[in-house]
Amino acid sequence: MSTLAPPRSRKPVTTAPRAQVKGTSKKPSNTAQPSTAHKAASQAPTPLSPSKTANATNTTTLGNMDPAMIAVMWAMISEGSNLPRADNNDDGDQDIDMVGGTDTDGNTTQINIGNGDDGDTPMDNDKAPEGNEDVAMADNHDAGADADDEAPNTSKDTSNAKLKPVVAWVPRPKGSAGNGFSLQEEMMLAGPKGSKPSETYLALSRNVKTLALNACLDWTLDWKDIPNDSKVKFFAVCRANHPFLGQFINDWATEEIVKQAFRNMRKTAVKKGELEKKDKYAHLAINASKRSSAASRVKKAYTGVDPKEKKRALKKVVKANCRKAAATAARRSKQAAVVDQGDGDDEMEVDLD
């Protein structure tokens, strides 16, 4: 709030020492010389009220103020919520009541940053002057915040809410994924490409593979050679991140997903030469090199078997083929006999007519 002071008299007026601010040095103020506009003024000054008289004693000019003090005052004015309240002493004096200055017309501008004009009672928020609106709003906000802190918290905390455990009820089918059953169908996520179940299965497989690598599971080893303690921790993390996987008994779906992923990673590494083939698969490469594209694939079933056992198995196969051929020949001969007998009867009937 700014008020215009009355014009000064012809006699030079000496300003009172400016208010002392903590942290700044106290310097004597200079004597203000009357301007020509003030000398030409003939109107006598009007008497001031007691409150304005008390405030006028603390009025200083911005031109005579220390730059550090101006910066402090500007920071205090701009931050309304942090404005200090002046202490009401017994004699009515205040530490800092006003900050003033002289404009180009010679009028004095006063900005009240105190607690009030001259009252000893504390200022109410609803009766606060315009210059202290920010202070009143800040007080109301602080009071509301304190009330919120004291009030009991009745809202539900969903972050600490316990999730219902998923009951495992889907048994493991016979065989393994890709050799006995389809993993996507057994997980009830089968569907055409681009459908929601199919996309869910692919996203779930990628996430489980990422969790397995983050768990530091050695993908170069077979699943049975990986330590069990690492598997237990990995399964627990998968069930926590994806409760859907908890409905499969003993986490067999998660196990099959990881086994497929690690198997594909090993195959890719072997093709690139980053991983050596295991000795137990060496005979497969030898057999593949000796195999002819025109040869029968029946011989693949007897690879690595004792020659005697191989001969016995071949004899069984030959006998079975002979029995099948004999049964087929007997069936065909019977069919031919029935057809021939039926043709003769038809001819005789034709001759009788």
Automatic annotation (TrEMBL):
Biased composition (Polar residues): 22-36, 43-52, 104-113, 152-161
Acidic residues bias locations: 342-353
Cleavable signal peptide: none
Domain of life: Eukaryota
Residue ranges of the region described as Disordered: 1-62, 83-162, 331-353
Protein name as catalogued: Uncharacterized protein
Species, as recorded: Paramarasmius palmivorus
